[in-house]
From TrEMBL:
<feature type="domain" description="Luciferase-like">
    <location>
        <begin position="1"/>
        <end position="297"/>
    </location>
</feature>
<feature type="region of interest" description="Disordered">
    <location>
        <begin position="1"/>
        <end position="21"/>
    </location>
</feature>
<protein>
    <submittedName>
        <fullName>LLM class flavin-dependent oxidoreductase</fullName>
    </submittedName>
</protein>
<dbReference type="InterPro" id="IPR023934">
    <property type="entry name" value="LLM_FMN-dep_put"/>
</dbReference>
<dbReference type="Pfam" id="PF00296">
    <property type="entry name" value="Bac_luciferase"/>
</dbReference>
<dbReference type="InterPro" id="IPR011251">
    <property type="entry name" value="Luciferase-like_dom"/>
</dbReference>
<keyword id="KW-0503">Monooxygenase</keyword>
<keyword id="KW-0560">Oxidoreductase</keyword>
<dbReference type="InterPro" id="IPR036661">
    <property type="entry name" value="Luciferase-like_sf"/>
</dbReference>
<dbReference type="InterPro" id="IPR050766">
    <property type="entry name" value="Bact_Lucif_Oxidored"/>
</dbReference>
Amino acid sequence: MQLGIFSVGDVTPDPTNGRTPTEAERIKAMVAIALKAEEVGLDVFATGEHHNPPFVPSSPTTLLGFIAARTKRLELSTATTLITTSDPVKIAEDFAMLQHLADGRVDLMLGRGNTGPVYPWFGQDIRNGIPLAVENYALLRRLWREDVVDWEGRFRSPLQSFTSTPRPLDDVPPFVWHASIRSPEIAEQAAYYGDGFFHNNIFWNKEHVQRMVALYRTRFEHYGHGSADQAVVGLGGQVFMRKNSQDAMAEFRPYFDNAPVYGHGPSLEDFTDLTALTVGSPQQVIEKTLSFREMAGDYQRQLFLMDHAGLPIKTVLEQLDILGEEVVPVLRREFAALKPAGVPDAPTHASLLAAAASETKNEEVVA
């Protein structure tokens, strides 16, 4: 089980004092959060991709490259790479470059985002969202796996004898997670290729999450990649902790009530009851996170959102200390004890490289 955090990079006023951080402060805060994640023993830091206020992470590979230079162990990922509005050639080249700089500590999560206007900004039509995701990823896979690509599709100019550079590190492309909270077509796409499926269940009830993950697992097995319980699943979540739950609820409530996404909607109590949000003690976070197995089965990656809604960086770093010291060690131990034999670990560059070497050896033996 990989345990980590993701950031959407929102620049939001602190509702308790009205202060809004500058963009520079927010970007540097994201770096500090990533460094703290490694310090406290987390496995993954992931950044979103947005091209509109109030968000700052418009260039994930720039941010992750900077973090790569200052970390040694942390897996670097995205909480969405916009496969629909980003050129797959640029994605192929940018993430291969990041792979080399980070010594393989890179994967990415593909998605369509939740901002409709981004499509015309990048010359696309939102009504083509699913076809764009399908076609662009098919090209991205070829660019990483074929040295010379001839290609023609519907949404971008043709390629003739094109080689994406640099080539993936050790000829092993980064692992890909397909992220969707509502589209079965994306779960189907992940299953078809045998890639990972990430459901960022921060807004959804467990019944919906369960249906989406079950669809992916069933289709993963249908396409011959292994049994359903061998499919690679990741989940999102949100937490805010203090020593006792009453203090956590009181401190977090103004941030929840004014959050840019779910503020002025359901009550904090209703939202924590219906979704993955946990506001309470470390033990409550442990218990609720372990309960995610009931809806998703044995899964490989759990990412928490912790720096949103205007929370000051000091508070976020305190939260990471609690997560690393009191929550993550217990989750690691409990998830490991519960995981049946045969359920794979989260893929890494090392494991993918070993699998590729084994496949090559088997082919040589057969030949």
